[in-house]
Amino acid sequence: GxxxxxxxxxxxxxxxxxxIFQSLRDIARVRMNMKQFNSIHNPGSNTHQASGxxxxxxxxxPLLKQVVEEICNPDRLDPVDIxxxxxxxxxxxxxxxxMFMKVNRPHPGDHPLxxxxxxGGVSVSEVKMVKDLVATRKPGxxxxxxxxxxxxxxxxxELLFAPDRLQPDTDI
Length: 172
What we know:
- By secondary structure, the protein is an alpha/beta fold.
- The chain has five helices and eight strands, in the order H-E-E-E-E-H-H-E-E-H-E-E-H.
- The chain has one domain (10-45, 53-161).
- The protein has helices spanning 10-30, 63-71, 89-97, 124-137, 153-160; strands at 41-42, 45-49, 52-56, 59-60, 113-118, 122-123, 142-147, 150-151.
- A hairpin with a 2-residue loop joins strand 2 (45-49) and strand 3 (52-56).
- Helix 2 runs parallel beside helix 4.
């Protein structure tokens, strides 16, 4: 709401900052119901041992990295926040019988082809990270990363703070 720095007032700046923090709270609220993937922030810790103290600083762990690590985890249990969707009659019958018998649901890492579709966009560095993680943790698995957009740093910030970020782009 400000076309130049000459027209910037304290109230306009406060409104803009409030809007930014509201957007960040909205994004955090989306993941609130998740059990496993509800945070990208690791607060770190201070660890004291007899020989001295260790400080582990806070760190950032991208959501996409967490999901791919869970899919490629060799000691995997049933994923908590990743759900298998039945696709055919055989799968539906297996899912129906699983109520009466011990039938394990398929795990996303069981298939030799992993397809990841990122709604909203993916950056080149995220695609490389997925490729490297799958190559080291699940060799022999082919991975395809698809997305609604290829993000640059500028476009990511622009999408994050756009007033209508959930509306599709109609300038096609």
